[in-house]
């Protein structure tokens, strides 16, 4: 298989159902999702093998596949037919967010991205997920798209935040609190 097609040299690319400019909002969405997937790959490469992170690693691997599904669903010019990304993927993220929120120390103040290298990369992935979400909102204003990708990207950024905190906790590394933060999160436990 050749890696180049010689069909995009004039600034156009194929999407499912036609051709668009390479800077089309749809291409921006799935291109940003691809960037997000790459950051998750970095986190996976950074996490140690063994039992301590086996749950996080298997979830991230699952998420990488779901991100391909998400990008595929957004690549359709007309969202007819079967969607690849299902509502169950959103529910799974919510379940894992709740579990990780219970495991990590209670959050009172805003925190800065950092701590361990893996958590820092996870926070970078979180910010890319937020950008993908914003781009998907912009696409929704121009084209008909499925609604699951937007909900998924929103929950995914929350999942990545919660998982970054758990990674630091399991490594016995404290989250870095924003120095000028007041106590903004009230105890729910």
UniProtKB/TrEMBL annotation:
One BP term from GO: cobalamin biosynthetic process
EC number(s) recorded for this UniProt protein: 2.5.1.17
Organism domain of life: Bacteria
UniProt KW keywords: ATP-binding, Cobalamin biosynthesis, Nucleotide-binding, Transferase
GO molecular function: ATP binding; corrinoid adenosyltransferase activity
Pathway(s) it belongs to: Cofactor biosynthesis; adenosylcobalamin biosynthesis; adenosylcobalamin from cob(II)yrinate a,c-diamide: step 2/7
Catalytic activity: 2 cob(II)alamin + reduced [electron-transfer flavoprotein] + 2 ATP = 2 adenosylcob(III)alamin + 2 triphosphate + oxidized [electron-transfer flavoprotein] + 3 H(+); 2 cob(II)yrinate a,c diamide + reduced [electron-transfer flavoprotein] + 2 ATP = 2 adenosylcob(III)yrinate a,c-diamide + 2 triphosphate + oxidized [electron-transfer flavoprotein] + 3 H(+)
Transmembrane helix listed as a keyword: no
Annotated ranges, domain Cobalamin adenosyltransferase-like: 3-166
Family the UniProt entry places it in: Belongs to the Cob(I)alamin adenosyltransferase family.
PANTHER family: CORRINOID ADENOSYLTRANSFERASE, CORRINOID ADENOSYLTRANSFERASE MMAB
NCBIfam families attached to this UniProt entry: PduO_Nterm
Subunit structure: Homotrimer.
Listed name of the protein: Corrinoid adenosyltransferase
């Amino acid at each position: 298989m050749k890696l180049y097609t010689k069909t995009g040299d004039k600034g156009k690319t194929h999407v499912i159902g036609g051709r668009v400019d390479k800077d089309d909002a749809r291409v921006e969405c799935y291109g940003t999702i691809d960037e997000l997937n790459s950051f998750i790959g970095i986190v996976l490469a950074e996490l140690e093998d063994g039992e301590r992170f086996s749950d996080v690693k298997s979830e991230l691997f699952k998420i990488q596949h779901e991100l391909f599904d998400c990008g595929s669903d957004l690549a359709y010019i007309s969202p007819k037919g079967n969607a690849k990304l299902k509502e169950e993927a959103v529910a799974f993220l919510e379940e894992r967010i709740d579990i990780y929120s219970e495991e990590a120390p209670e959050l009172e103040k805003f925190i800065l991205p950092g701590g361990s290298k893996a958590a820092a990369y996870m926070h970078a992935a979180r910010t890319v997920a937020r950008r993908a979400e914003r781009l998907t909102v912009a696409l929704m204003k121009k084209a008909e798209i499925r609604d699951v990708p937007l909900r998924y990207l929103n929950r995914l950024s929350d999942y990545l935040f919660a998982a970054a905190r758990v990674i630091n906790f399991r490594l016995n590394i404290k989250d870095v609190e924003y120095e000028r933060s007041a106590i903004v999160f009230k105890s729910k436990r």
